[in-house]
Amino acid sequence: MSALPAPDPAPVLEVRGLTKSYPGTRALADVSLAFPGGQVSALVGRNGAGKSTLVKILSGALRPDAGEVRIDGAPVVLRSPADARGLGIATVHQELSLVPGLTVAENVLFGRFPRRGGLARAAIDWRRLYEDAARLLETMDVRLDPRAIVAPLPLAQRQMIEIARAVSSGARAVLFDEPTAGLARAEAATLFRLVRGLAARKVALVYVTHQLGELAEIADTVTALRDGKVAATIPARDISSSALVAMMYGGASAPGPAAPAPVRAAPSAPAEPAADRAAEAPPVLEVEGLGIEGVLRDVSFTLGQGEILGIAGMLGSGRTELLMALFGARRADRGRILVRRAPGAPERQGEGEDIGGWTRLGAPTLSPARMRGLGIALVPEDRKTQGLVLGMSVLDNLCLASLGSVARRGVITRSRQRRAAAPVARELDLVAPDLDAPVGVLSGGNQQKVALGKWLLREPRVLLCDEPARGVDVRAKGQLFEALRSLSRRGIASIVVSSELEELLEVCHRILVLRRGALHGAHRPADLTLDRLVALCMESGAPARTA
Amino acid sequence: MSVRRAFFARLSKGMLEVLLVLACLFLAIAAPGFWSVENLMGVLRSVSEIGIIAFGMTMVIVAGEIDLSVGSAAAFAGCLVAWLVSRGVPVPAAIVLALGVGALGGALIGFLRTRWGVPSFITSLALLTALRGGALQLTRGFPLAPFPAWYGTLGSGYVGGVPFPAILLAVSFLAALFLMDHTVFGRSVYAVGGNAEAARLSGVPVGRVRIAVLAITGALAAWSGVMLSARILSGNPTVAVGWELDVIAAVIVGGTSLSGGSGRVWGTLVGVLFIGVIVNGMRLMDVHEDGQLIARGALVLFAVLSSRLQTAAGAS
Fold first, then answer.
1. What architecture does CATH give domain A13-97+154-249?
2. Minimum CA–CA partner of B259 in chain A
3. A11-48 pLDDT tens trace
4. Which of A55, A441, A446, B27 has the lowest CB atom count within 10 Å?
5. CB contact (8 A) between residue B182 and residue A392
6. Which residues touch A208 (CB under 8 Å, ≥6 apart)?
7. pTM, entire model
């Protein structure tokens, strides 16, 4: 680890009083931070804490409402990503920004191709291009063929190309946005070496991560953002999981604030943290030895009727893949799933093997349509790309998963759709100008209610919820969780994945810890504190995939 | 939305209809012979071959796919019927077979799309060439004319003063309207074109929807080819060249977005009529063929540009 540099009067990169608001939320509120050259400054925080907004402003993709960015002490205006690059701020994105059809060398030196002399000035000097790139890669100790096409290269190597590009462009500051998500441990080690190499060149490094376990290994300082403000900055060597939790969550190591007022009074429902009741409930779903090569290992658990089961894990732990595999939306390699047949449901429903009231299915043979038929529902992670058809109306989206039952003999009418959807819209307190409005105009929270609501039209037996409250306001979040509780009282079970671990503590009856694709124990929220749960999730601290 | 914005939104929504009426009024005054029953019926008959395919193409484009093979499929179907009839197959059986082959061709495009992710653009481009070759092969390059005289009614007959093809245009319009606006299938088509992943995760059979819209369009193209062969009383391998572009142009003028997920069968009908009326009017006003082509090109560009500008205005 490099020594902390002497306090410099003008850090390479600095922000002062940065403020950015979106309708309804303040993403950044008066944030001032300095990123000195030669230092790896890690940024941590929960989703919505303001990390990505800050990175977007620094990379020129977003303009702040107030405040300024300074380079070497001089204020600069970043109107576009090109501006930022021109001023020496490079970004290594989560979704990489390489041109896949071109070679490694072309990508590294993109926009700065060496030219031939004389009359052929317009022509690229290919030999020099490859030589320059090869020399650069060599100095970085990266083994990559400059003539290789980028497209088939694995993520880790493409990331190296991005870093090489930053080096070759003489970047003064490099922003890393979740660079280790999806990397194997050995690949991450190479990445850390390259980051260290950049630090040795006195480059300022801004390193955003959810992978708290790697902080001690890579960072010099750790800054936590909370609710758009800087919560604290501490040297990375003083880091501990409880200190991190305190910084990120504001010292609350108990379950988060109580949910806002419930949507509606639950009819005759006892107020409960019903952990024990749910544990005794008859099982509705059993998962046996579910596996996906390199992603999930031998995942087995049982879900009780009406139980709300949380899956706690870091980004890259395989939590999303687990839900997608259970729904048949992502093919599993091995394992079996048993679903209890609905009372009164005909046998051989969903084509699975029938044993004593259960339908048994081989995990690799699942499909969304089939799981839907068995009463399984998925509220996917990203409502905009997976959950909703944004151009269609609220009504059409609500009916999308149950077209067959809304229609009569294949014929569907608006009034029929309305009759089916209106009760769900009311139950979820959906705020929409009109059910015929395109779903895209709704707020995030109301869009999420539609993504959930479309499954409530068909009374599912098991709801799989991936980040059900991501990017929604506090009120909608409370309502969504209350909806899960109220479903639970009706006997509908849920499996909830959330990167906001305190949400799991608040809503779940039982929590399974998923680390690097394998389950590590089940816990009752009453026996857990937030920092204990964070520690359980990051115990190994390493990225998901084994090399 | 302000009252004014809402007013303009509604106006621009019905803009094509307004333009169609204006064009008709203008031609009624300026083009000799336009405003007569015979001429208007003639317009309907002339647009029906393209129009029937356009309703299928609307579904295909709304589903986010494209079919470039419809012209060749129409020519192939006409030649296939002629060839079968010349071999002694009864006309009705020959027609049914041709429709089946058209549907199969469309289904093939959809199957390759679903199974191996081959873009429908590519497969239908291949079929565009191959089916034309097939038509030439069947007829050895010359028109085949084995048809009984009554066969001609299918293409140029009248029922109660209305051209038979125009009746079929109306029937297929109503069928497509019903299918797209009032059935599970129609909702699925919009969902698949709007966001295929969301549709898949809602349990919509995405692959089957794609195959179905392409098969329907293939069958409609074959039917159009049959009507055309009836009109010219022969299976001719060199007809219907470039139809795919006329069909797509009508769909786009009708307001359907090439990126999928949005479009209306009604709009396509208006688009088909609009192009038909303009072409007819220009012919009556003795505009040269070259000028007509230029005007049609300009019309497509204008239609798309105006819908773009509307979207941009709506977004801001």
1. 3-Layer(aba) Sandwich (3.40)
2. A391
3. 899 999 999 987 767 889 999 999 999 999 999 887 77
4. A441
5. no
6. A42, A43, A44, A51, A52, A55, A175, A176, A177, A178
7. 0.80
Alpha helices (H) along B140-201: 153-156, 164-182, 184-194, 196-201
pLDDT for residue A8: 52
Residues of A in contact with B114 (CB under 8 A): none
CB B50 within 8 A of CB B253: no
Alpha-carbon distance of A362 to A352, in angstroms, equals: 8
Nearest CB among A380, A401, A407 relative to B203 is that of A401
Chain A residues with CB under 8 Å of B195 CB are 385, 388-391
Window 338-377 of A, Cβ < 8 Å to B: 368-369, 371-373
d(CA A343, CA A302): 19
Has residue A465 got a pLDDT over 60?
yes
Domain chopping of chain A, boundaries: 13-97+154-249, 99-149, 275-375+460-538
Can you give the residue range of the structural domain that contains B68? 16-310
Name the residue in chain A with its Cα closest to that of B200: A368
Residue B204 contacts A, CB cutoff 8 Å: yes
What's the pLDDT tens digit per position in B194-221?
999 999 999 999 999 999 999 999 999 9
Question: Which of A210-219, A417-426, A467-476 shows the highest mean pLDDT?
Answer: A417-426
Q: Does A6 score more than 60 pLDDT?
A: no
Query: A392 in contact with B at a CB cutoff of 8 Å?
Result: yes
Q: If you measure CA to CA, which chain A residue comes closest to B260?
A: A391
Per-residue pLDDT reduced to its tens digit, A297-320 = 999 999 999 999 999 987 778 899
DSSP state of B119: -
Answer whether A388 sits within 8 Å of B195, measured CB to CB: yes
CATH for A275-375+460-538 is 3.40.50.300
Q: Which residue has the higher pLDDT, B33 or A353?
A: B33
Please give the pLDDT value at position A95.
64
